[in-house]
Amino acid sequence: MNYEPVIGLEIHVELKTKSGMFCGCPADHFGKKPNTATCPVCLGLPGALPVPNKKAVEWTIMLGLALGSEIAKVSKFDRKHYFYPDLPKGYQISQYDQPIARGGKIGDVRIHRVHLEEDTGKLQHATIDGKKVTLVDFNRSGVPLVEIVTEPDIHSAEEAREFLKKLHRIVRFLGISDADMEKGSMRLEPNISLRPVGQHELPKYKVEVKNINSFRFAVAAINYEIERHARILDEGKIPAQETRGWDEARGATVSQRSKEEAADYRYFPEPDIPPMRFTKDQISNIKGQIGELPDAKKGRFVRVYGLPEKDAAILTDTRELADYFEACVKIGRIPAQKLANWIINKKVNIDDVLPAALILSILKAQEVVDVPPDLIAKVLADNPKAMSDYKAGKQQSLMFLMGTVKRQLPKGDVKIILDMLKKELDTH
User: Fold this and answer.
1) Which of 154, 171, 172 is nearest to 162 (CA)?
2) Which of 97, 112, 150, 367 has its CB surrounded by the most CB atoms within 10 Å?
């Protein structure tokens, strides 16, 4: 039987605010000594009260607007209860029935919701004194985390990859997160199931693969699950509804636990944080900060500067690179396509090379000096065998002679050198 994959995505993105979601601890936790950036609030100590991070709320609204979502007039935080060593309070402050944003889309993939929550601590598995132990680092606990949930509109691993890459670019363009997957600031969680081709109802099960940290692993995990589900369905069985993890070393997913339903989390409104109300003016002001998004900018680069789609996509990978390219174009003197080629092929370090300095470098590299006839005569006199080979029909000897001239005159024009060599060779 042929099956169609049905895939939805949950993406967690750490926001790069200066402080935590509900406390004043630094949000930049990566690489710090374990448990050195914590306080009573993010450790869940008795009597500690959470205070929402205004910037994190505004950035979540900004992301929702960039995705075409509808921003809620009233939104609230909820307690999501579950017991795990990296969750010090025994619950996570998240959002349940009144998220900050609903709807929107990227391409043909609809967005179900965009909500804000706090990140958990991080477990580290180690061996100490010959014993396998699990250590907990709470530095990450309480970092602002925005979750984007899609509808099950994706039907292949490649479609998932394209969606994730577009979302990644939007998040970075907005400047709300570095979305560095190696550091865990963007984590990917596909929900996968299969249905017979031609069936339109959603399957009666789904499997979630947690905390994937690269587009490549997301593709591999999805394809692995598609094959695994197909084998089970072919046997007349239904895959277990569960949460699995991606094992990079084995190139396989592994079972972690049965998949929870909303009722399992015992959601209820966070009693220590009042509901948030957003006015039209507030939302309008945030919308005004978004600017031109990646796809629109890429289209303009193709239309206005005549760049190929591939080059335009590279130059609009980040807002900083796109702004750098346009700053170079505004200086003038170099055609846009030549600038694009130089920036892309030379891998220009835009942090170290100012646009004006790049223009000067290109102009200097393009300088052409006159080719002295006596240099041509000397090269021919020094290489009689090459002259003989050329006259015998060996065209590669002409390129050897041209290379000899170029080594002595690096800025000489290749076409002029070849013409002069041919003229001299034909007269001998």
Assistant:
1) 154
2) 150
Q: Within its chain, how far is the Cα of 53 from the centroid?
A: 24
pLDDT, tens digit (0-9, with 9 covering 90-100), for 99-132: 999 999 999 999 999 999 999 998 888 899 899 9
What are the structural domains, with CATH classification, of the chain? 3-283 (no CATH), 292-366 (no CATH), 373-427 (1.10.10.410)
> What are the tokens at 143?
């970092």
Q: Residues 6 or more apart from 98 whose CB is under 8 A from it?
A: 72, 74, 75, 76, 275
List, in sequence order, every residue forming a beta bridge with 246; answer none if it has no partner: 253
Please tell me the distance from the alpha carbon of residue 427 to that of residue 421, in angstroms, as a whole number. Answer: 10
pLDDT at position 257 over 80: no
Alpha-carbon distance values, 209 to 217, 224, 248, 266 (Å): 11, 11, 13, 23
Q: Per-residue DSSP letters for 291-343? A: -S-HHHHHHHHHHHH---HHHHHHHTSSHHHHHHHHHHHHH-SS-HHHHHHHH
Instruction: Look at residue 27 and tell me whether its pLDDT is greater than 80.
Output: yes
Rg of the chain over CA atoms, in angstroms? 30
* Residue of 171, 136, 159 lying closest to 15 (CA atoms): 171
Burial status of residue 120 (CB atoms within 10 A of its CB: 0-12, 13-18, 19 or more): buried
Show the tokens assigned to 310.
Answer: 């591939």
Q: Show the tokens assigned to 392.
A: 């015998």
User: Does residue 368 have a pLDDT over 70?
Assistant: no
Q: Contact at 8 Å (CB) between 269 and 98?
A: no
